[in-house]
Amino acid sequence: MDGKWDLSYLYESFEDERFLADLARLPEMIRAQQAILDDASLTDQARLEKLADSIEELNALSDKVGSFIFLTIAVDAGNATADMYSDKFSLIMNEASLVDSNITRYVGRVENLDALIAASPRLQTIAFVLREMVQSCRHTIAPELEPWMLQMQLSGGSAFSQLRDKLDSTHTVGYRGQSLPLSAVRGMAYDADAAVRKDAYEAEIASYAKMELPMASCLNAIKMEARTMAKAKGYDSVLDMTLDQNRMDRATLEAMISAMKEYLPHFRRYLRAKAKLLGHNSGLPFYDLFAPVGSASRTFTIEECRGKLMAELGKFNPEMAAFVDNAFAEKWIDIYPREGKSGGAFCAGVHYADRSLVMTNFQGSFSDVSTMAHELGHAWHNRCLAGLPYAMTNTPMPLAETASIFNETILAHEVLKTATPEEQLTLLDATLMESTQTIVDILSRYLFETEVIDTRADHSMTVDELKDAMLRAQDATYGEGLDPAVRHPYMWACKSHYYSSGLNFYNFPYAFGELFGKGVFAQYLQKGSSFVPAYNQLLRFCGSAPVAEVAQSVGIDVRSADFWRSSLEIIKAEIDKFCALCGE
Prior knowledge:
Layout: H1 17-38, H2 44-75, H3 80-109, H4 113-119, H5 121-124, H6 127-136, H7 146-154, H8 157-170, E1 172-175, E2 178-181, H9 182-187, H10 194-207, H11 212-232, H12 238-245, H13 250-262, H14 264-277, H15 302-316, H16 318-329, E3 333-334, E4 346-350, E5 355-359, H17 366-384, H18 397-400, H19 402-417, H20 421-455, H21 463-478, H22 491-494, H23 508-527, H24 532-541, H25 547-552, H26 561-581
Parallel strand pairs: 3-5
Antiparallel strand pairs: 1-2, 4-5
Helix pairs in contact: 1-2, 1-3, 2-3, 3-6, 3-7, 8-11, 13-26, 14-20, 14-26, 15-16, 15-19, 17-19, 19-20, 19-23, 20-21, 20-23, 20-26, 23-26
């Protein structure tokens, strides 16, 4: 197994005549949409129906073309041809954004929209999105300004985001006489050898001096653009704009954040227990945050990972075992780190083809197995959305983590059932490492990004200011759980989520997903196999209603801090067990 994904079902190459023809068709389809808007002979119902069909066709083609470009660059940052077509595609999609705004303004003016929806089976399939456009109409940029703002974004936020990705994927670290990709050195944080972890951490921190200035420039530019766009769209803040994009309200966010803060002492208790286990007296040094513990530590081959996921996820739903097997067999997954490949992991759905492409940087730790389960959870979510109109597959970020966290939780739950006490220590630590990242570290990222966005109203933050802000955010969340002398002042430079132009606060959705996924898992424990159809339906419903309404479909009130506390109690129980096994 070469470990590389197969994109040939999209196109054979950038010279493929089908790719070139499809790219050329996109501008024609965008012009056709505007022509439908401008056709005075059409009734509102006929126009809306034609637009619905046209939008579906354009989404399918842009999904195909854009996925091929993006997925190529993700694993081959030096591909100049892919970069060229990325620029061409961005220009084309800018034109599509302008027409999208025109469509939103038009729908916002239709006076009898509900009556038209009731009279049209076609419009009923996208009723939620049409009604959402009426609300979104209040936040469209003035039509005389929007073309220029979108053009400027190409050389602004989008360009800085692309630069950041190139800096990250081409960045090398000097480690023990070798020059290694950043992703490979960061992966050493999970190594069983303490000396490897410490040396890798020190090499990583030292290496950021080579790119800290351009990284800081990218971050400052992107967050200033976010402030500008929020103001242009009539929002009071970047956070309000983000919540609206996520179909989430402040009551939900505040209930979740307050519960997370309440439980920080328990996470610190876990970190201190782990620190003592590893021989540290002043809290856990950052380089041991991901250290495996216990003599039961082991590594997995990719085939062992495949078999483990099929076995454990298959206990919940046999269809998922077959789904995982097919993902490997059909080469949906790009597995191993290599130079030019982006760090981290993601899953990209290609809806028209009912496929998902998963990128990981697998090196064999149990955490890597859990990451694979996580990304294949996203893929399963995409499978549950199969057959829906594109407009109804737009799952907001908080709900987009539901299936991925659910998969991680199943894996940990099933593996722990048959584990010895020594194995339980190792597996609980692996699980709690991930929970600490999605609760404690995510909260630090939320605090950090809030400060960066607020400070950008006054000035660009220097590298030293960014490092200081990051360390203060870590102190506020990790507290005495981390050794104050050995933290990570450059977490802002190595986390791509800060640099997604148009996606701000790409942090709290992970905490939402962690806790919501665990809350959904608790329902599965209560109801057993009869819950499987309801779970799949929940995933299918994620793009069809606001977050609170989707949650209510399975009896969850996300505006109540009590729900979030109930999910955090699941993690607290794991912390209690871990500390007991440590003799604390």
